Structures are given as structure tokens and as C-alpha cells.
């Protein structure tokens, strides 16, 4: 488990334990807003992607993190509440989406 996945698992488990919902209300506008927030955070923390190889590697890393969570969810390798599993998969999927947008902006649309 990567340190980021471990941190998110702790945060989600704490939310679920306190009775808060770990999964957003959903809806297209909500999801797109969350992708935009994740993209803004990535821009603040990381330099632009330098090319298609780097961009692909970043997206692949995020996909690997999502896949790690999905495998655990499917095979029951990690024991935490179903809502926490869904929230963790959602968080990773939002990161994949944000990095795909960043790839388009930094690599494909770069003038």
C-alpha cells in the first residue's frame, strides 16, 4: 500500500467512524467540480508535465493506485467498511481524471 493510499484509508475510516459520509452526493456537476479541485491542487504542488512520456507515467501511477484499491475491494484483502472502500476508489478515480485533464492541457494543447 502506498503512503498516499494509507493516509486516505485513515482519513476515510475516521470519517466513517465519526458518522460522516465519506462518499459525496454524486451528480455530474459535483464530480466535475471535484476533478477541478484536484487539478488545482496538482498544479499548485507539481510542475507541468514535460512531455507525453512523463504524462503517461503520471496517469499510469494514478491508475495503479486505483487498481490497488479495486483489487482489495474485489478480493477482500483489506478489511474496512464498504463505504470507505467506495470513497477510496472515488478519490483515486478523481485523481486519474484530473491527471488526464492535465495531460491534455500540458501535453496536447501546449503551443
Query: Stretches where pLDDT falls below 50 for ≥5 residues?
Result: none
Q: Specify the number of helices.
A: 4
Share of residues in strands: under 5%
Order of helices and strands: HHHH
What does the radius of gyration come to?
A: 15 Å
Regarding quaternary structure, how should these chains be classified? single chain
Helix content range of the residues, please?
over 70%
Cα(first) to Cα(last) distance is 38 Å
How does this model look, in words?
The chain contains 4 helices and no strands. Helix 3 packs antiparallel against helix 4. The termini are far apart. The longest helix is centred in the C-terminal third of the chain and has 27 residues, at 82-108. The chain is mostly helical and 111 residues long. The chain has a domain at 1-10 and 49-111. Helix content is 76%, strand content 0%. The model has no long low-confidence stretch (mean pLDDT 81).
SSE arrangement:
Blueprint (H helix, E strand, L loop, with lengths): L2 H15 L10 H18 L6 H24 L6 H27 L3
Helix pairs in contact: 1-4, 2-4, 3-4
Quick structural summary:
With 111 residues, the chain is mainly alpha-helical.
Amino acid at each position: 500500500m502506498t503512503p498516499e493510499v494509507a493516509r486516505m484509508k485513515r482519513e476515510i475510516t475516521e470519517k466513517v467512524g465519526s458518522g460522516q459520509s465519506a462518499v459525496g452526493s454524486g451528480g455530474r456537476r459535483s464530480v466535475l467540480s471535484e476533478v477541478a479541485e484536484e487539478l488545482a491542487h496538482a498544479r499548485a504542488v507539481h510542475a507541468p508535465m514535460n512531455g507525453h512520456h512523463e504524462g503517461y507515467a503520471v496517469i499510469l501511477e494514478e491508475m495503479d493506485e486505483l487498481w490497488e484499491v479495486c483489487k482489495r475491494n474485489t478480493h477482500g484483502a483489506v478489511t474496512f467498511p464498504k463505504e470507505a472502500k467506495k470513497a477510496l476508489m472515488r478519490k483515486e478515480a478523481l485523481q486519474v481524471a484530473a491527471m488526464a485533464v492535465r495531460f491534455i492541457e500540458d501535453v496536447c494543447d501546449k503551443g
